[in-house]
Amino acid sequence: MSYDSLADVPGLEVGHHADTRRPTGCSVVLCGREGAVAGVDVRGAAPGTRETDLLDPSNLVDRVHAVLLAGGSAFGLDAAGGVMAWLEEQGIGYPVGPARVPIVPAAVLFDLWHGDTRIRPDAAAGRAACEAARQARHGAAQGNVGAGAGAVVGKLWGIERAMKGGLGSASLRLGGITVGAMVVVNAVGDVLDPTSGELLAGARTPDGRHLLDSAAAIARGDLPARALVGAATTIGVVGTDAVLSKAQAQRLATMAHDGLARCVRPAHTMGDGDTLFALGTGAAGRSLDLTVLGTLAAQAVEWAIVRAVQHAVGLPGLPAARDLGGPV
What we know:
The protein has helices at about 80-90, 125-135, 215-220, 245-265, 290-310, and strands at about 15-20, 25-30, 35-40, 50, 65, 65-70, 95, 100, 105-110, 150-155, 165, 165-175, 175-185, 190, 200, 235-240, 265, 275-280. By secondary structure, the chain is α+β, with helices and mostly antiparallel strands.
């Protein structure tokens, strides 16, 4: 087994772009000239997405050429235009009459807490992420990179008691098949390691020195005074070189959410836009039982989420997991 990156999946390339002016950025997964079979599952109640309806198994197009994850809230969807333009220049896209139209689903997260909110990923940022994917031998960067640059977790008690989130990645290999995940953790809830049960990052106590444990606080009646509406989201991509149908890709995305739910507490809330895409490149020339693939995908999502907060670096007023003591 390997435990590294979504870029371990044959046929996928990963690139990141982070803005130097404030904490925001975008990450792209390139799917090669022939594209990848794709599915999606949107579980959060406040999603910001593009081209997700296209991925319904009953709809026409069965392959995508890239997936974009971006900060900037809904404004960040503009970065997908840059990815499309870059792919078009490579001659990559779905043939429609005299044109080739690149298919680029996308999901965004809210990261407008710090600095000038007019600075957010745009077409130039999407293009830069594509160039980075082609230049990098391995898309294994984690923490404050790409779409994770401005990610924040543990926001139930307000941004002043939250912590830094980030981007994480992981992969597994079983029976000659690779399954990987890349996840950007910007959740309303806390993040825990499901293997040990250790709380890693999330809402802090009023003095800011310890983790509160949001679920335990709610259970004892310590309720947040106000909720941040639509200001969170965990988004990601799972990929495999197994051969998948479009319906199987959608089911793989659904099963991958199990990993998210085991690591983020609470997950899939009214303030989150939790969205996971699934990609199948078919490069292995065969498949595994979908139950096995889904189990591996959920495991890869778990590891990616844990790594996202373990590799995160704090920002002013937002400590990272490495900076803080455990729960009180």
